[in-house]
Amino acid sequence: MFLFPILQLKGYPIHKAKRELSKIQAMGGAPFNSWQEDKKWEMARHHYQNNSVYRSLFKNGLPGNWNSLPIITKSDLQQEFSSLITQPYKRREVYVGNTSGSSGTPFFYAKDKHAHAMTYALIANRYAWHGLSLSQKQGRFYGIPLDESSKFRELLKDKMANRVRFPVFDLSDQAFEKIQHSIKSGRIKYLYGYTSALVAFARYVKARQVVLKSQCPLLSACIVTSEMCVEEDKMLLEQTFGVPIINEYGASELDIIAFTAANGDWKLSRENLFVEILDDQGQAVPNGQEGRIVITSLHNHAFPMVRYDIGDLGALDENKAGVLKKLSGRSNDLIHLPSGKKAAGLTFYYISRRILESGGSIKEFIIRQTALNRFEFDIKADKPMEPKLVTELHKSMSQYLENDLELQLHYVTDISRPAGQKIKHFYVEIRD
Questions:
Q1: Based on the structure, what is the number of domains in the chain?
Q2: CA distances from residue 409 to 78, 156, 366, 368, 370 in whole angstroms, order as listed
Q3: Distance of alpha carbon 201 from the chain centroid
Q4: 36-49 pLDDT, tens digit each
């Protein structure tokens, strides 16, 4: 795998990050808790002193009580990007990404190179828990941009990272037949991808009364990500693939948040993140009770991810420190189309990518499928989309899904979502 050497050459201190991660993990009990307490305050003070946008969230200076620090939402970060980067960092010096996650709330984020290297060091560490290495071949059930330049960049990264990508825009039996053949012939060590796409593939395999492992002896694990994997789906995946199912919970703007350990616990990434579970008033809830997941990055000096509300609901284990017990919602429905074709709900991230990158006028959106051929966008924006962007949206739907789909745009002042569910951006509302 060429990814790590290339990152190192581009200034990302991978080797240093691995050493630092090992030192953190060597701490135990009280020393680790003290380190984490110091780090979270270090990040708060740093961004308060060097980031005017973050400082503007405070009314009476930096408080001495952690619970009095403001909780940051994505809307707080939807401002002119250069003003969000904490001094003395400049845009050219940091890693820049953009995301709507599954929430439909787009924004750009930055990571200093050390923080980004710590993310990769953590990923390698977590994979090693299961005997996996980032150098081993991965079968990736994921999306991919279809415009030529972006697609080329993603495929180049796949090549460097030893990945075979199976785009989730087509989940038909014909597509799955080709995927199954690629897994059998491609010496793939583990699968990785959206839960809904992997579950759909598992149903295809099960219908053929085979266990994937029997056809692909090298296959040793399956990592599900981006969407909830309920127990029924996990059992289906285990039985059909014949390998352990590993649950990854993460966010591109942060890190891996939790990852299945060898003993089955969903271990938080406490080396890189400080995780809180809060009620609607911003107060900590007792372990075991559900609340808002609020996260502080312990290494990112370039962007104010301090008490950041990720938009998920979850609960910590009341008996085990550093274990996520429950994550509520975080699932995307499958798209069903008039032709009979199916696609993952996260396909709409790629369809709407052009809108997200067009500027800051769009604050939030969701997509509702109200008929097999009809998709309705509820959009919260400063101004309506330009006609050329609407045309591009129509074109993208035809490109990623199929032709002759109806698109309706609704400009709203507030986004209405079902109560008690994970904030996501695609909902199926087809009535039987």
A1: 3
A2: 22, 35, 10, 10, 13
A3: 21
A4: 999 999 999 999 99
